[in-house]
């Protein structure tokens, strides 16, 4: 990271230049000199700068990708700029920024410069900049759906007709209230696209930490969708591992562990107990435990790890554990009765 010390000084002398930048000019690939490089990068939430030499083929290729990335970013009006600097004519700028090979890409965000480490195709570039911007609503056309799935927080994705402005508006209306807990995405379908199998609009959920599948039913209106997204932000059956264990313990709410060796078994049992978990929301937590990795923990909780899948309740306050009889087949009814007998 390299702090941009001179930016403040430069900005004051460049107000005139900036005033002449129209929004349309924003998302084009800007050919910059020292001054316009700093002006651009301090005037946008995030910038990507390409440092290159003229008449150098590898540079032309990356420049082409940047141009196409700029077009995509322009469509969505992102607060991002793409800058190209010719290190032949702007040698001092490149030297000052320690550019020693070409092409080099740097990301400038919130006053600091860092290396761009991703692939240099336009899609990866756009994805990287969108992640940096962390927008309230992600537009997901053109194959950007995978990006939202790769985030570590739940994503609620609404598929709409391109002309359905009212649904798009309501998604934008509820997104600020979900910031940091759930990301919202919109996939808009036009007549030219492949036909979709479901009636538009419809809602999909990608929840990296929920072992049960969350499905949205009911009308896509502001209240229903907002309520749903709020609920989705908390998993019905979460995952117990070193990253989540502390939160479970600190909540002091008794935890029902679903212990099994395979992902498939854990999800099967999670789906079985979904109704019990929903019914006991607030008084019990439910989470799976991967016994292939954390078998010792299941053993400590009193389960025979040779007879899995198994289920055990841990009462953090009373410091006691209650394994479900491992000779019995786990069913929703069995779990419901077992838990009722403990409460
Ligand atoms: C874009 O980001 C810059 C820097 O964070 C900010 O000053 C500016 O107001 C933003 N512009 C828009 C249109 O949001
Ligand atoms: C931007 O940088 C400032 C100062 O380094 C820091 O306080 C602030 O949290 C940063 N903002 C974001 C959005 O990262
Ligand atoms: C669980 O209960 C709380 C409060 O009782 C409620 O706000 C929340 O929406 C419920 N969550 C689910 C997933 O039903």
Folded structure, characterized:
Participates in the folding of proteins containing disulfide bonds, may be involved in glycosylation, prolyl hydroxylation and triglyceride transfer. By secondary structure, this protein is α/β, with parallel strands linked by helices. It folds into three domains: 2-133, Glutaredoxin; 137-232, 3-Layer(aba) Sandwich (Glutaredoxin), CATH 3.40.30; 238-342, Glutaredoxin, CATH 3.40.30. Helices cover 39% and strands 22% of the residues. It has a six-stranded mixed β-sheet, with helices on both faces. Strands 11-13-12-14-15 form a five-stranded mixed β-sheet. β12, α12 (263-279) and β13 form a beta-alpha-beta unit. α5 (57-75) packs across α7. The structure holds 2-acetamido-2-deoxy-beta-D-glucopyranose (3 copies). Residues 231, 234, 278, 281-282 line the site of one 2-acetamido-2-deoxy-beta-D-glucopyranose. One 2-acetamido-2-deoxy-beta-D-glucopyranose (NAG) binds at residues 110-111.
